[in-house]
Amino acid sequence: MKLADLSDAQLLESLNSLCGQSRAVLARLLAHLAEVEERRLHLEAACPSMFQFCVRRLGMSEDEACRRIHAARLARRFPGLLVRIERGDLTLSTIALLHDSLTEATYEELVEAVAGKTKAEVQALLAKRSPIPDVAAAITPLSETRHKVQFTASDALRKKLERAQDLMRHANAEGDLAVVVERALDLLLERLEKQRLGKTSRPRPSREQSDTARVSRATRRAVFERDGERCTFTDAEGHRCPAKSWLELDHVIPRARDGTNDVGNLRVRCRAHDALYAEQSFGREHVERKIREHRDPRQRGYAAESCGLAASGLVNMGFRRAEVQRALDTVSGRHRADDLSTIPVQTILREALAVLG
């Protein structure tokens, strides 16, 4: 009978029957492979290994041969696996994952735990039972234009990656993680370049700023572009610092000494050289005290830790420390002292920005 002549119900029934038969055949195949190896018949067939026997004499692919040989050897130790395979409780992929974990002591409990589970679910279960140490983060060149990226992800990150894969299937049908990560980094870099470097799709020319204004986005953009997004510190011999991370905008004439936020009074410095210049300008003891205050908001006299965190954010936005202190004092005065510790930082930040205008 042709398949086209079968009704929908008959077609599905036939398919289910064939799946059952294929599982039964697989179980018998594994039993046969185990017996062939036990009798050393592969050697008599002029094959030095079971792998060669399966590929050369039985016509299996390399992958098929490896998986079936491993499963056959495991089934010889634990014959009950063949019954589980025939029933559909276990697949060759599952058995491959169990290969190093099955012992006489763990067999019953472990096989029962993984029965009917997908490969991903079995991997998660085994990782929970026997955690593997984190891998070292690394980027290793594979060729001139290709690299291997390795790191350990949290469960939360795994879920985000899987969700991103699902949402990008229309543009990334295979769910290639490299495509997902590159797209995510494009969006992140766009946001960070806007925040940190003042970049925008519609740049406006920078203009002179008042002494009390924070550094504008246009000015920030102009300074970073001028300095090549790199620390500008040079030593006595003219060697320039190579740092391109932890970059800050540094005032040539410090704000505390009436320096302006004009492009000509700003330069890019890495955090270490920014701190060095501050020590040279104000003394090491003063700078170390400011660092302690930054790390512990209570030392700056703020009414609550959330106010201290808001202050750090405002200073990073370009507001002067004295302006920030006055604005936060105003905000603190609007609330009861006991309530300040429960108010979100975002709320305090919004109220302070309103005061700063």
Structural features:
357 residues; mainly alpha; two-stranded antiparallel ribbon; two-stranded antiparallel sheet; elongated
Describe this structure as you would to a colleague.
- The chain has helices at 8-39, 41-44, 50-57, 62-77, 80-87, 92-98, 107-114, 119-129, 155-167, 177-196, 217-226, 271-282, 284-295, 305-316, 321-333, 337-340, 345-356, and strands at residues 138-141, 147-150, 247-251, 266-270.
- Among the domains are: 3-129, no CATH class; 138-196; 296-357, no CATH class.
- With 357 residues, it is mainly alpha-helical.
- It starts with 7 loop residues before the first helix and ends with a helix.
- Helix 6 (92-98) runs parallel beside helix 8.
- The protein is built from 17 helices and 4 strands.
- The longest helix has 32 residues, at 8-39.
- A two-stranded antiparallel sheet has the order 1-2. It has a two-stranded antiparallel ribbon with strand order 3-4.
Average pLDDT reading: 87
Task: Give the helix/strand class.
Answer: mainly alpha
Number of helices: 17
List low-confidence stretches.
none
Order of helices and strands: HHHHHHHHEEHHHEEHHHHHH
Give the overall shape.
elongated
Helix content: 55-70%
- Biggest sheet record: 2 strands, antiparallel
From the alpha carbons, calculate the radius of gyration and give it in angstroms. 33 Å
> Widest sheet: strand order?
1-2
What's the β-strand tally?
4
Distance between the termini: 83 Å
Proportion of residues in extended strands: 5-15%
